[in-house]
């Protein structure tokens, strides 16, 4: 998939709703405030990075793909930072960012445990990491048999598998929430999203938020 095609999906009604729903959950869990620094790991075309910057955060996007980063630079404010790098070996000192965010990116990274450890290391206060949920309608629609479209090749996890990734790390107050229960994006899906508690683990995106111990 080309970066322009991927980014254009977020401009569609369904893509915008899913993106905003996922960002809103992460932002609420992180308790983001204007002026905070944030690293977006696996930023791709930078949609979530730009969204965080729109809320007044000092945002930096990191991705291993130089082509996607070039697209991100060309479609964002010069105030945003873009870094080419590996999630398993983040090129930043420990506690470099108030918050670290990663949405449905580590499911494409070999050795997710190492990537999680790196995210925890560079976070000063809080982190929020989102994984694709194998116990969801989204998996039934897009994840089976290797995945389709942007989900091709992604790993999908259960709640238990996600929790295990944090075992032994210097974290506290872990919370697990989910979003995008009906991925169709119809009016009924949006109404359901407003009424279903995020503590239910059946949304298409599983988000683990925690604090640096």
The radius of gyration computed from the alpha-carbon positions, rounded to a whole number of angstroms, is: 16 Å
What is the tally of beta strands?
7
Instruction: State the secondary-structure class.
Output: alpha/beta
Instruction: Using the 3D structure, state the CATH architecture.
Output: 3-Layer(aba) Sandwich
Mean pLDDT: 97
Taking strands numbered 1, 2, ... along the chain, how are they ordered across the largest sheet?
3-2-1-4-5-7-6
Q: CATH first level: which class?
A: Alpha Beta
The end-to-end span amounts to 39 Å
CATH superfamily label: Vaccinia Virus protein VP39
What count of domains describes the coordinates? 1
Order of helices and strands: HHEHEHEEHEHHEHE
CATH domain fold name:
Rossmann fold
Count of helical regions: 8
Profile the largest sheet: 7 strands, mixed
What report would you give on this structure?
With 213 residues, the protein is α/β, with parallel strands linked by helices. It has a single domain (3-212), classed as 3-Layer(aba) Sandwich (Rossmann fold). 35% of the residues lie in helices and 23% in strands. The protein has eight helices and seven strands. Strand 1, helix 3 (47-54) and strand 2 form a beta-alpha-beta unit. The radius of gyration is 16 Å and the shape is globular.
Task: Write a compact overview of the structure shown.
This protein has about 210 residues and is an alpha/beta fold. Helix content is about 35%, strand content about 25%.
């Amino acid at each position: 998939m080309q970066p322009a095609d991927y980014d254009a999906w977020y401009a569609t009604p369904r893509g915008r709703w899913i993106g905003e729903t996922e960002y809103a959950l992460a932002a609420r869990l992180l308790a983001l405030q204007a002026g905070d620094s944030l690293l977006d790991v696996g930023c791709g075309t930078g949609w979530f990075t730009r969204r965080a910057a729109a809320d007044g955060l000092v945002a930096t996007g990191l991705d291993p793909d130089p082509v996607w980063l070039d697209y991100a630079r060309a479609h964002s404010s010069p105030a945003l930072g873009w870094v080419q790098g590996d999630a398993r070996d983040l090129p930043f000192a420990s506690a470099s960012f108030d918050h670290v965010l990663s949405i449905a990116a580590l499911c494409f990274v070999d050795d997710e445990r190492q990537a999680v450890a790196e995210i925890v290391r560079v976070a000063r206060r809080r982190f929020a990491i989102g994984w694709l949920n194998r116990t969801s309608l989204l998996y039934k629609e897009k994840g089976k048999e290797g995945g389709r479209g942007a989900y091709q090749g992604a790993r999908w996890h259960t709640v238990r598998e996600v929790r295990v990734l944090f075992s032994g790390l210097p974290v506290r107050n872990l919370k697990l929430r989910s979003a995008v229960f009906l991925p169709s994006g119809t009016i009924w899906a949006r109404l359901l999203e407003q009424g279903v508690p995020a503590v239910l683990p059946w949304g298409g995106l599983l988000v683990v938020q925690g604090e640096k111990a």
